[in-house]
Amino acid sequence: MDDSLGLFLVADGMGGHGHGETAAELAITTTQFYVSASRDRFDVSWPFGYDANRSVDENRLHTAVQLANRQVWKKADEAPEYAGMGTTIVSALINEDRAAIGHVGDSRIWLMRDGDLVQLTADDSWVAGMVRSGALDAKEAKEHSMRSVLTQAVGSSRSIEVHTAEHVLQSGDILLLTTDGIHGMVDEAVLRSVLFNCTGVDQAAKQLVQAALNNGGPDNASCVLVQYQS
Hints:
Number of helices: 7
Strand content: 15-25%
Strand order of the largest sheet: 1-2-3-6
Radius of gyration: 17 Å
CATH class of the domain at 7-108 and 120-170 and 223-227: Alpha Beta
Shape: globular
CATH superfamily of the domain at 7-108 and 120-170 and 223-227: PPM-type phosphatase domain
CATH architecture of the domain at 7-108 and 120-170 and 223-227: 4-Layer Sandwich
Structural class: alpha+beta
Oligomer: single chain
């Protein structure tokens, strides 16, 4: 999280012996570095090209996450013990009343507005793809043995697809960034209830983490909450 940049990030690493944590930290620092370096929009390079169908901030996040993928892939290629290392990442870059989002993997961004909770991202997972195709329903997906199988992650291959979008914010909106240690253990109705009764984002974040732990969630249950005021 970097308030000076308007940048908020969550990453969930994978790989044994602490390598998942290494992948997540490398992805976070690389993403932060590029977003910071690209603040001056008249003096910035686009090593993966510039997509005119994306906003400038979407392009910044797209490039930042692609660079993160390159760094994690390179690290994983350095030694056999790093093989299989990777991480999810979900990012929000807030500039005035607009939030650009970018993600890879199954960490999520949610928007709470006027009592309604909406998931803004689509998981890169096998079961999510099956749900989108109509082969599974939401209940079946939640109980499926392959629910944790990702179709892509940062560092999992040389080439990845970074999903981006941009949303106009309204005063009072809350953005929630979660790992599956949160949304995999806490029902959406509980997420909505905690945010609806939110008296402060710090307290709400602690409540969500505790709810995940109470339901048997892992110790890497992580979330970031940010509330927008015009």
